[in-house]
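Predict the 3D structure for this chain.
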Amino acid sequence: MLASASSLLPALSLGKYMAQAQQEKLPQVLVIRPPAGFKTFEERFSKKFQFVKAWESSLSIDLFLSNHALHVTALLCSAGTRVTSDLLRKVPSIRLIVTTSAGLNHIDLTECRCRGISVADAGDVFSEDVADTAVGLFIDVLRKIISSDRYVRRGLWTVNGEYSLGSKLQGKRVGIVGYGSIGSEVAKRLEAFSCIILYNSRKKKPYVPYPFFPTVSELATNSDALIICCALNDQTHHMVNDEVMSALGREGVIVNVARGGIIDEKEMVRFLREGELKGAGLDVFENEPSVPKELFQLDNVVLSPHAAAFSEESFLGLCELMAANLEAFFSGKPLLTPVMDFI
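Done. Predicted structure below.
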């Protein structure tokens, strides 16, 4: 005989209670705002971690943290969450920050060091995807792929005839600013196009075969294009300024897949509008998601919504890495991609 609906209710309630009790035994991870792809991450690892989700609460962030996060020891964030000294004072129990980004300019690392908070980042998970996008943007600017696509779609080919000529990649002198995991992947790809690789980094790398320039201005003077791959910090903020752009010259191209604040954006817009730069491929901007409207009118500029790192494959790899870092922390083991490790 089938059980009545009323007889099933206690069993269902007990099952729900047991599931909730089991969830409460899991290590807690604070999430202020959901990183891109968080739903996938949560679905894959909800049986390993209990996620304390601030954005779902109607409480102010201060009340939420004081009511629900006083004993949470791990924080998961993206570049869209500012982890400031003020935030960390409100959750003094935090001992680990795991960020889904390779960049760290959203985290107060000095405060983390003072508090003994470990930090783990995305490591090299995104390096190949970002390098692919950097080279794609560079090719697009030189070969005018998107602008010629618009030319055809608007019916201008039949009216105005042939489109203006693009530029050849072979032999172009490409200065890579920041020769880390992303910069090295960019160089590897551009070698296949017979480009001449130059680089600038914090210091000369003995294992790198390409010419090194100690300043970005010197690099620009000797380059046809700059591809920005470095981190944003106090030293690199507006590092690509009017002096650097002038050194790059009217035939110069800028590609930025790092952070928007590395370039003096207002000066770059002016240089592009006045024809003092040949073009630009931009995946990042200084005040995202706001983009200078002047750029929308320029056919020599290719725009992307800070999506260089995003592919299905990289997201799956990131999910596994974030989970592995959290598991290492909660079991007292070394982090897989430590920026600072006090465990």
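The radius of gyration is 24 Å.
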